[in-house]
């Protein structure tokens, strides 16, 4: 692993709601990777980035939660989230929420400048080129939309995955096409969401790998849930788990403590 | 005008579409055809991204000075011997067209492809005035035979398969030998051309849309691949151009820049087969052309958009790249959207034109994947504008009650971190126990939209924050 010289930056880990509630092991994997990149990790008291409210048209709640996050992460050098979607909300949309309020927009912009998605932080900010991890098997990688299009994350996870011993990456068809999750969309328009994820599941299966990786737990739960309902044997994991050498825990939606 | 829209029934429309095997088969063509062609056209042009910036800037500049460019355009059209008619509403526009047809005693009208004509429901108005409209674009011709609406703004019959069109032709073209071979798409095209040729010659009035209007010269521009638009506007005595006010560009140079991004974004062509410039009626030295040239300039809600937060939508040049790249459009097709404009551009435009109370589903039926914005030739921030509609709906209490109350409960906890940590820790612990055996749920209360078709992963147990503070304290 790489470590840059100089004092160790202090990174506030923004776990994201889904990791906090559903899959804490992703948070530990993220912390391990951030520490390996030469940083200290703190986890300030936190709830949600506010994206569900923002995308449902409830700007007032979105602003309240954004401001809560800005205050919670005061004093850290970076804010890192294992999610392109939540990092995109904090980096790209939080400044929009305060752009008409001069006294709030400056701290909002300063906060947004510190925010990074996990894998792009490791590669683009910390210069990490390889990880010290082993994973035996073939994987395919889904590019989650917000990470890909709002934050330009595409090469970074693939570069680090290449350094994982024993791992081979097989690209699926249309890896950059939405999986149909879309936050509340998945429930509000469940039938359409299902039609989209069904296509995605076919592309995943056609890649003929045992494992599906992605950088966003929402998309992963959607794809894993469809694969499992269809009885497909592909296991789904957050990319951080594999990069941190924690790819032998039960996969998403698998029983705990075998 | 009371627009005929089934947008309020979007969910039911989508349900039908998802269970229509013929439609699903046809929709496969959207993904396989348009996307690859656009990409290879864009990749071949090193300055394509810069051209998109330039196209955006040209449109922004025009919209900022639209009043001046409209005046200049009108003056040029008049100087060339044409007439400009301003139509504040759809009804005004249809009345203007019907009046012209009546004055010249028109019995049939040959029409080029025009989405404005769909928006104002011109065909119904013409028929009511005793005038027979004939669609001459192959796709629109088929749509007219079937009594349908286009399902796509560039490819009107993308929802149909070849065999369905063959059946329509056999049903309608009864004078042709029944044993004829129509198995090749070219034979369908040839048959439609044969049927249309006499209509062109008989038409008293030709109506076309416009892709651009040029203020500098008073020119209207259409792009087509079939040449039907040219016949529609040169053969009849009267040519009527139907266009909305945002079609203006300042100069011919600007128009040619816009054409470079339009064709590539729409069909992946460097330029469409026919790009036709019309300026006024036939001049004495011209070998052909109409005796009268009219432009009906439609507002229908657009000047109100100019002043508000949806102004950027007026940059749209109707290339359809957004819907061609939209996973929701791929799943349900254009008719499910319930009005003239489908896909992401329709999700922003339709609420502006027919009201968010009717079209409220459309800006919500998006995953915000952002692929539309990433290909828009004039860089319209479509997801952001859809989100603005969701904000208007939320303010007006138009969002569905379960969504509002769900959000309110979640927001209450999320704004109280200590309570949130306590409550989520307890809830996740309980859920984890319930899901322990399988690791996932096949059904969950209030989440049927998800669990009807997908499993839902059970939580690992304690929350990350609880585990983190416990483990770090133990160090």
TrEMBL record, chain B:
PROSITE patterns the record matches: 4FE4S_FER_1, 4FE4S_FER_2
Keyword Plastid appears in the UniProt entry: no
Keyword hit for 4Fe-4S: yes
Keywords: 4Fe-4S, Electron transport, Iron, Iron-sulfur, Metal-binding, Repeat, Transport
SUPFAM superfamilies named among the record's database cross-references: alpha-helical ferredoxin, NagB/RpiA/CoA transferase-like
InterPro entries documented for this protein: 4Fe4S_Fe-S-bd, 4Fe4S_Fe_S_CS, FTHF_cligase-like_sf, Helical_ferredxn, LUD_dom, LutB/LldF, NagB/RpiA_transferase-like
UniProt xrefs under Pfam families: Fer4_8 (PF13183), LUD_dom (PF02589)
Gene3D superfamilies associated with the record: Alpha-helical ferredoxin, NagB/RpiA/CoA transferase-like
GO MF term set: 4 iron, 4 sulfur cluster binding; metal ion binding
Domain 4Fe-4S ferredoxin-type: residue ranges: 306-337
Record-level GO BP terms: lactate metabolic process
PANTHER family: LACTATE UTILIZATION PROTEIN B
Protein name (database record): Iron-sulfur cluster-binding protein
Annotated organism of origin: Hansschlegelia plantiphila
